[in-house]
Amino acid sequence: MGQLSRLIEPVLLFLLARKGHSYGYDLAAELPAYALGPEPVDRTTLYRCLRQLETHGHLVSHWDLPTAGPARRVYCVTASGRQHLQEWMRALELFSGTLDRLLREARILESPVEESLTT
Amino acid sequence: MGQLSRLIEPVLLFLLARKGHSYGYDLAAELPAYALGPEPVDRTTLYRCLRQLETHGHLVSHWDLPTAGPARRVYCVTASGRQHLQEWMRALELFSGTLDRLLREARILESPVEESLTT
DNA sequence: GCAACTAGATGTATTTCGCACCTAGTTGCA
DNA sequence: TGCAACTAGGTGCGAAATACATCTAGTTGC
Question: Whole-number Å distance, CA B69 to C1' D5?
Fold first, then answer.
């Protein structure tokens, strides 16, 4: 397996909407809690996803120069981004419904086998 | 959006496990009912996924030559394939749990906004 | 003075995916 | 007879997504 879609775009939008604003390195630390799939997300994918959301107008960024440490590119969700997040959530609701049905019906397949006595 | 992972591998394994055996064109017709995502799945992707599952030993195929119509490559799930399906289902259970939590927490974000009076 | 950590970025190879296109058998109809 | 529509499978290629390696640069602690 392994190729559970990264699907990090909606998670990033969600985290940013909830936190108000954040930056890549920080989001990378929060992502595992919501990452859809077990494999850790590559930082490159995350940075590029943020940049792409910005070019699409869903985020805006500015440089934050903390008194200590390297500069951070801080992102905020725009109105367009909030709308995009809601579209994502509608899509994910459907996704979730289909997935649950699949899991339910797959469990029915598994249960009646019981070949433990044939050993 | 659009890139809700195709995630068709577990669906194909599930459908084949339930039906006993089937072929690409038929599975393509059943897929939309379980497709995780709204966009229709390209037939190329489906055929290639079946071939890949076969090279990994999760499926076996033989040619069926019906009295009417073109030949069909009929697939059956192997023992390895059934095991693989169960692994997939375990992964998708986790996936579903995380997804539901994301949806729940995102709904909390949306609800309290209510800017309808500011127009 | 150097290792470890924070923070962001690029460049490139690989993988995945979708589109266009092809073969071939059958059915229906004009 | 000819051809459109449908069934059934497949290939080749380009675009997009992804992963890996590598780079710069500031700070902290030893």
Answer: 14
d(CA A105, CA A81): 36
Q: Is the CB of A55 under 7 A from strand C?
A: no
Q: Which residues contact A107 (CB under 8 A, 6 or more apart)?
A: B89
* pLDDT tens-place values along chain A, 119 residues long: 445 556 899 999 999 999 999 999 999 999 999 987 777 788 999 999 999 999 999 999 999 988 888 999 999 999 999 999 999 999 999 999 999 999 999 999 877 655 555 55
Residue type, B36: L
Q: Does A74 touch chain B (CB under 8 A)?
A: no
Domain annotation for chain B: domains and CATH numbers: 8-108 (1.10.10.10)
DSSP chain A: -------HHHHHHHHHHHHSEEEHHHHHHHGGGT-SSSSPPPHHHHHHHHHHHHHTTSEEEEEE--SSSS-EEEEEE-HHHHHHHHHHHHHHHHHHHHHHHHHHHHHHHHTT---GGG-
Indicate whether this model's pTM tops 0.70.
Answer: yes
- The per-residue pLDDT for range B55-72, each reduced to its tens digit, is 999 999 999 998 888 999
Distance in Å from D2's C1' to B75's CA comes to 37
Contact B3 A4 (CB under 8 A): no
